[in-house]
Amino acid sequence: MTSSNxxxxxxxxxxxxxxxxxxxxAIKAVRGTRDLLPDQTPLWNRVEATARAVFARYGxxxxxxxxxxxxxxxxxxxxxxxxxxxxxxxxxxxxxRAASEKAQSLTLRPESTAGVVRAYxxxxxxxxxxxxxxxxxxxxxxxxxxQKGRYRQFWQIGAEVIGPxxxxxESPVRDAEVLEMLDAYLxxxxxxxxxxxxxxVGSAEDRALYNKALREALAPVKDKLCAxxxxxxxxxxxxVLDSKDEQDQEIINALPKIADFLSEESREHFAQVRAALDxxxxxxxxxxxxxxxxxxxxxxxxxxxxxxxxxxxxxxxxGGRYDGLSEMLGGPKAPGIGFAIGxxxxxxxxxxxxxxxxxxxxxxPSEEKLDVYVAPLGAAQNAAALALARELRCEGLSVxxxxxxxxxxxxxxxxxxxxxxxxxxxxxxxxxxxxTVKTFASGEQVKVPRAELTGHLRSC
Length: 460
Ligand code: HAM
Description:
- It is built from 15 helices and 16 strands.
- The chain is α+β, with helices and mostly antiparallel strands and 460 residues long.
- Strand 12, helix 12 and strand 13 (399-401) form a beta-alpha-beta unit.
- Bound molecules: histidyl-adenosine monophosphate.
């Protein structure tokens, strides 16, 4: 809002003076991106810390790859015809800044598997002969239409198991282990009602046969499909299978099933994955239409879905095997399997669960509070309050310090909101070393000598 007084609130260089309301438009976060504020980040940190702890138990180490890569990496790895590469990437021509540099096309990573496999090749990780178990946590970028659970900058927690064939990277044990780890992780976080959808899309050869059959089956009915599916039927018929278009479902259900095109080897591999899951007691639902939106998948593909909190974006995570990806990127034979969890979606699910639990029990979710609020009773005690806070923090307590300018009522109000207890520091307290402490939960107010203060605050 502009008022006639606003002009007077500007500095000589035209910048607004502090606190002035001005006609200058405030800049907002870009559509599809968001700020995570301190009332949200504790849950994000818990989700990430639990991932690190669980993945470490399975022998995974962290890898951090750049957030931008050569565009060609995604074109070759993820596939030119996929939605991601054909319309969702943030790509720019990066001009050369010196004669020794070449201009090149760069892209903010829309996913991390291609970058991790690039790093595997670049650092010759296969030459150790060992199986590599790598995990990552970081932002990804896709220019999708933003909605609940779908952002243009979003976070993934992912992992990849990759190695030369001699390392056992191709073994169905690896597929089952990754799925069992995800089940353990979600259970440890307390996620309820998730469902593992499982399929095998076969080897590259099986898929080629299946694609041909799909094209043939789609040709006579193509005109009856929606515009999107007509395009997919031409460019990437597999993508027709995960279309949600209501009207097209009857045609899609009648299409040939991938299971009928699996070679003996692919069939056996999938049977062994399922047997290992059964042995571990991990439940799954076979979904022959689960083909996933990236081109690198072979054999096992999967998604975990949830009904709570995500609306139509109900895929909490997705992944699968990518046995030919390394070769597609110019590397050695290195079969692999991995997944990426949509961290934003996982957080939404956990928040919704907490809300439902509070609604059912009538008990509001408990808030994290600081151990103590130190309130100086006058400006003369400010320095002593800061010094006391410093000592308490060194002893491991979480502390906020007030301001001697605040009225006592105001100090109590703030303290009650953010801390479990308040310590009053007036002239007498500084002189005697005996402090007045009030604990909010019990309402108890007592005098405590400085030497006993930390112990008292810990116990209340
Ligand atoms: P993806 O299915 O494209 O797979 O993404 C994995 C998960 O990321 C999705 O299930 C979803 O939870 C989340 N996600 C995707 N797009 C968005 C978005 N715009 N906003 C919020 N969340 C989103 C991959 O990215 C593969 N790299 C997974 C993988 C790893 N496969 C093998 N290894």
